Amino acid sequence: MAVVSGLARGVDTAAHQGALMGGTIAVVAGGLDIYYPRENEELQKSISEQGLLVSDEPLGVQPQARHFPKRNRIISGLSLGILVVEAAQRSGSLITARLAGEQGREVFAIPGSPLDPRAKGANTLIKSGATLVESSADILDALASLQTPLAEPEGPAYGRQSLPVTEDISAQDRQTLRDLLSPTPTRIDDLARDAGLDIGIVLTALLELELAGTVERLPGSKVALCGTSF
After folding, report:
1. What is the CATH number of the domain that holds 97?
2. Residue-range definition of the domain harbouring residue 64
3. Where are the beta strands (DSSP E) in the chain?
4. Is residue 31 part of a domain?
């Protein structure tokens, strides 16, 4: 099994280091020639020689906040399953886990003390149906029944509805979308219609706002500004 992660500090770094000899894929938010974070420069070089580096950005591009939603979607899309090791109640890891669920991937989580705020996100996932993980055997047993993805089918490539290049979203489009949001849940399709924007652009902008903790996704393909919802 190849281990896919985002080359961030902490758990990501440990995951890549532990899997380097067996196979690891690092999905980065900037250009492949940019070392971020700087302390992972040697690790990134090692992965480029012994594993695989993936990015949606051209060479020379510095990582910016708007790049991370695309990075997270690629991480979950490349994987058979996502393991959440540590996550606060509002965490980018939980958004990646949700993306994994939408993409039909398995979701795993390591439980923690209910008194530890860093464990609340993983514990919530387990209560919602994620597979509880105590050792690597739990993951391998769950994945044993999954068939390795086959070659891409003939015909139009799937994923054409994926997120557009984020630079295509203008500041005016972002502001238009923000003005339409409120604490009252609103259907995403209605937002796109009222804003006069392509649904792909709306989804990208909403994912950025979700990662920033500004909006929350709700059942029924609805979103609302974080705070009081009705």
Report:
1. 3.40.50.450
2. 3-143
3. 3-5, 24-28, 52-55, 81-84, 106-109, 131-132, 186-187, 215-218, 222-225
4. yes
Query: What does the pLDDT profile of the chain (230 residues) look like in tens digits?
Result: 899 999 999 999 999 999 999 999 999 999 999 999 999 999 999 999 999 999 999 999 999 888 888 898 899 999 999 999 988 887 778 888 988 888 889 999 999 999 999 899 999 999 989 999 999 999 999 888 775 554 554 544 433 344 444 445 788 888 888 889 988 889 888 898 998 988 888 888 888 787 777 888 887 788 888 864 43
Four-point Cα dihedral 55, 70, 197, 171, nearest 10: -80
Q: Are 28 and 7 in contact (CB under 8 A)?
A: yes
What's the total number of domains in the chain? 2
